[in-house]
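Below is a filled-in request sheet from our internal design queue. Each sheet records the structural input a requester submitted and the sequence that came back. We keep these sheets so that new team members can see what a complete request looks like end to end.

REQUESTER: design group, bay 2
PRIORITY: normal
MODE: inverse folding
CHAIN LENGTH: 216
BACKBONE (tokenized):
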């Protein structure tokens, strides 16, 4: 385990946490599970800021995948690798599904803001109605992404605890977050807005993991 490898891996976790959190927290307009006619005018009012912060958030998902792969590579010489690599694969699948779901809101939020600017309320209502069916599918992607990532997180925690290569509290917290994400998403599938506390706690967990790795 070289100093450069630990530095790269640790800073990837911290960068992922920062990008995910900053991009989402400072987003001037948040789209709910379904678009509303007012969303497009609100996005248009701060379009450039909205687009760039959303891009930062989207890239945060990709950097998170890179961080998990780097962690598995860092620990590839330990017995934990037989659990870590499958766990990373599931986490990556969940994150990719999540980023595809978020890209839907990003695309139609920006395109709708430009295309619907200045249009009468009737056209706005008709545009929102057309988005209802595809958005139903996208909400399924949101759920799958959260459940898959939660499941992968539990498996990742098992690898961390099994290999005893990092503090055990990181693994315990990961198990709690993963189980909470799966239970909330599958137990209350229509309550998508109840997930933000888990999102923010995951950000803290990512940052804590990065700091821990830097101290190795």
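RETURNED SEQUENCE:
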């Amino acid at each position: 385990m070289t100093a450069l490898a630990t530095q790269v891996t640790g800073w990837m976790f911290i960068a992922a946490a920062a990008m995910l959190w900053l991009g989402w927290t400072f987003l001037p307009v948040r789209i709910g599970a379904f678009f509303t006619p007012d969303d497009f005018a609100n996005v248009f009012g701060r379009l450039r800021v909205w687009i760039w912060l959303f891009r930062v958030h989207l890239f945060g998902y990709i950097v998170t995948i890179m961080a998990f792969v780097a962690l598995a590579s860092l620990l590839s010489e330990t017995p934990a690798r037989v659990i870590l690599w499958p766990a990373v694969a599931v986490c990556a699948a969940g994150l990719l599904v999540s980023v595809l779901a978020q890209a839907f809101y990003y695309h139609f939020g920006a395109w709708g803001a430009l295309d619907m600017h200045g249009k009468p309320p009737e056209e706005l209502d008709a545009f929102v109605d057309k988005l209802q069916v595809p958005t139903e599918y996208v909400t399924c992607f949101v759920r799958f992404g959260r459940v898959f990532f939660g499941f992968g997180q539990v498996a990742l925690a098992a690898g961390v605890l099994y290999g005893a290569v990092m503090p055990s509290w990181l693994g315990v917290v990961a198990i709690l977050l993963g189980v909470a994400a799966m239970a909330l998403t599958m137990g209350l599938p229509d309550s998508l807005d109840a997930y933000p506390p888990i999102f923010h706690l995951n950000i803290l967990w990512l940052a804590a993991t990065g700091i821990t790795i830097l101290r190795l």
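SHEET NOTES:
- The chain has seven helices and no strands.
- The mean pLDDT is 93.
FILED BY: M.R.
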